[in-house]
């Protein structure tokens, strides 16, 4: 390394408690690696945080949570942004790159309720909150008697809506609850067999300008190779189908030793059709495994499901 680290680094972040926790985590990790550098947070409100009355799939999806942060980097107001990888569009805009992917937290979905212990305890007609089409499809396929209702807002808002009695239960990512020190809100974990996680769930990524290889090298120690391999394979599957949250799509890789097992599904939002695919092999061959999974999904007419999903969102 020939260049020295800048004296100051600014991390752009959303201002939700989870986003702040994640940015502070990166700040602390960098501070201990580089004690002489001043590392500051730049909190920002994104369109995704402002629009709370419509489901994400209807207002434009993932990009809503990241655009303001990306503009800050392109304008030179921030050096990097910390994101939940799950919220990152599959195509990173021109001029930017995802650099480090941090070690993954629990990738599972969590069942959260004040009155019930698990999904299979819910009575017919019970109102379950989630705005994720993926969670909705997985739930409706197994528990068609449940009444799935939209649930938006940051984690605290969603928990408050549960506590106010609007829902019998809600489904959240376990990772967010654990990071915020709320693991006691998790009544049970929903295993991948029941609700396969979405690409990148539980992982955080750092985004920087793509003309800054020095900064990328300084951030490289934060990259967790196993997580990076898993999430790259997952995101490749998602990307092959447009990578939006307007379709119920799951892609989840588990790495054990040097072996990766990659699973995915694509579904109709009401869960009446779910096609699944799976591939296993060396974890260094993630691109090949995701190509196999994509091919298996295509052979089961994923294109027709995709077309039907997009037609439904266009109508809604
Ligand atoms: N879509 C919002 C979002 N983005 C990241 C997380 C949780 C943390 C993670 O998956 O890394 C959540 C909340 C949720 O899905 O319950």
From TrEMBL:
Binds 1 dipyrromethane group covalently. One of its GO terms (biological process) is protoporphyrinogen IX biosynthetic process. Pfam families: Porphobil_deam (PF01379), Porphobil_deamC (PF03900). One of its GO terms (cellular component) is cytoplasm. Its EC number is 2.5.1.61. Residues 9-215 form the Porphobilinogen deaminase N-terminal domain. Keywords: Porphyrin biosynthesis, Transferase. It comes from the Bacteria. It catalyses: 4 porphobilinogen + H2O = hydroxymethylbilane + 4 NH4(+). Its cofactor is dipyrromethane. It is an enzyme of class 2 (transferase). The modification S-(dipyrrolylmethanemethyl)cysteine is found at residue 245. One of its GO terms (molecular function) is hydroxymethylbilane synthase activity. NCBIfam families: hemC. Monomer. Belongs to the HMBS family. The porphobilinogen subunits are added to the dipyrromethane group. This is Porphobilinogen deaminase. It comes from Sapientia aquatica. The lineage of its organism: Bacteria, Pseudomonadati, Pseudomonadota, Betaproteobacteria, Burkholderiales. The gene is hemC.
């Amino acid at each position: 390394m020939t260049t020295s680290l800048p004296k100051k680094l600014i991390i752009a972040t959303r201002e939700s408690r989870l986003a702040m926790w994640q940015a502070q985590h990166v700040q602390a990790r960098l501070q201990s690696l580089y004690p002489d550098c001043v590392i500051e947070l730049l909190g920002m409100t994104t369109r995704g945080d402002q629009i709370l009355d419509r489901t994400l799939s209807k207002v434009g999806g993932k990009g809503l949570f990241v655009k303001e942060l990306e503009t800050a980097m392109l304008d030179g107001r921030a050096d990097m942004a910390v994101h939940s990888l799950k919220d990152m569009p599959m195509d990173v805009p021109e001029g930017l790159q995802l650099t480090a992917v941090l070690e993954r937290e629990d990738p599972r979905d969590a069942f959260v309720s004040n009155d019930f212990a698990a999904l299979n305890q819910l009575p017919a007609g019970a109102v379950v909150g989630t705005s994720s089409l993926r969670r909705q499809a997985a739930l409706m396929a197994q528990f068609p008697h449940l009444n799935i209702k939209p649930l938006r807002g940051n984690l605290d808002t969603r928990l408050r809506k549960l506590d106010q009695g609007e829902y019998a239960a809600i489904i959240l990512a376990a990772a967010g609850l654990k990071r915020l020190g709320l693991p006691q809100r998790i009544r049970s974990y929903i295993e991948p067999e029941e609700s396969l996680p979405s690409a990148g769930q539980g992982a955080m990524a750092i985004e920087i300008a793509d003309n800054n290889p020095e900064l990328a090298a300084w951030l490289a120690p934060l990259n967790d190779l196993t997580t990076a391999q898993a999430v790259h394979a997952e995101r490749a599957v998602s990307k092959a189908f447009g990578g939006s949250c307007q379709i119920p799509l799951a892609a989840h890789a588990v790495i054990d030793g040097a072996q990766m097992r990659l699973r995915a599904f694509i579904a109709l939002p009401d869960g009446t059709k779910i096609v699944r695919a799976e591939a296993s092999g060396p974890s260094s061959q993630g691109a090949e495994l995701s190509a196999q999974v994509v091919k298996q999904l295509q052979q089961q007419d994923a294109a027709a499901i995709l077309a039907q999903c997009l037609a439904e969102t266009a109508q809604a």
